[in-house]
Amino acid sequence: MCDTIVAVQSDRVLFAKNSDRDPNEAQVLEWVGGRRHCRGETLRCTWIGVPQVRSTHSVLLSRPFWTWGAEMGANEHGVVIGNEAVFTNQRYARLGLTGMDLVRLALERGEDAEAAAAVIVDMIDAHGQGGGCGLENGRFTYHNSFIVADCRTAFVLETAGNCWQADRVSGVRCLSNELTLGDFAARYRERPAVKTVIAGARQRRRRTEEQARRATRLQDMMAALRDHGAPGHDGAAPRYTPLFGAMGAPCMHGGGLLVSSQTTASWVSELTRQGCAHWVTATAAPCTSLYKPVAVAHPVDLGAAPRERFDAESYWWRHERLHRRVLGAPRDLRDELAGELQRVQEGWLADPPPAAAAFAEGDRLSERWLRNPRLRLAVDARPWWVRRYWRQRNSWAALSDNGV
Q1: Which of 3, 22, 230, 367 gives 135 a disulfide partner, CB atoms 3.0 to 4.6 angstroms apart?
Q2: Burial of 217 from C-beta contacts in 10 A (0-12 / 13-18 / 19+)
Q3: Residue 251 falls in the annotated catalytic set
Q4: What are 358-401's pLDDT values in tens digits?
Q5: Which of 2, 151, 251, 287 is catalytic?
Q6: Cα dihedral 204, 207, 210, 216 sign
Q7: CA 268, CA 147: separation in Å to the nearest integer?
Q8: What are the domain boundaries of the chain?
Q9: Which of 120-129, 210-219, 228-237, 328-337 has the highest mean pLDDT?
């Protein structure tokens, strides 16, 4: 599940996305340079091959470790894209291009938002969409909606099988795992809307739209992605239900007995004619993370690429120890961390540090918090089903129950 937001303003476009996946589905932040390719090359995507084009753009991607495609990303021309799972009445193909493949293909091949959206449409027409999209359940599949933006405009592109419809954005638009485009949605949405309801799609979209309409700064988009759907600041606790965990808010936390999902990476961009600013967590749980400034043209060494088991050499997994510990901590400890994150973030937004320095500072803050005696001794007060859920995921990831 995911939430994607775009706000088209007179002098800029603001973009934000949370990627919600299985808790151990670590996300890779990857820089890929533009290249010339030989005529007749075949490009291997996640499940199928497609003809390669003669040249591709440089891209920065945030992708699940096991996929070729990306949940979100940007290219050297200032195009950003995020995709959403949607559930429709059309057939789900066993093989095809995943929505994440389509994001990457469009970024590598589209020089502006309109051209990138056209790439997605052309690839669906030629190759279809399909294939497994989950780590814990390899057969889990869906169709896709996209927000495609550049510094001048944005598009919502929604699909159902090989059918699609696009709409140019005016003002604010949000996607949260539900078709939204009028007649297209009426014709192709799933009936009954079981998966859409389970995903909490409408309540999350109402929440993100409410916040996005008030957004005037990058801080506001970050706050929308950190939101737990409750009044108060970013430290407000997640609300868990027995069946669905904390899937009812943009900052999503696993813990449901029936279905569950966890925010595993977050991205915010400010796109202007003068240039683009991209900010990423490269870690799970934005409520426990700092957004770091990154650029398509300047790679950062983040250590070993993460996989589904804990690796101390991986930036994503080092932060995961803090995330998994602090979510069970008493409210005052969570609020204390949120306050410190906000102070650091405000300073960075006012005077952005070099990317490598920001990632290093995020690492230091996580390590210092993990050594906090109050955090180490805190008793997990979450509901029993949430504690059980995380014990199992920690075991799969070779982490101790307290995440340290």
Answers
A1: 22
A2: exposed
A3: no
A4: 999 999 999 999 999 999 899 998 999 999 999 999 999 999 76
A5: 2
A6: negative
A7: 13
A8: 2-310
A9: 120-129
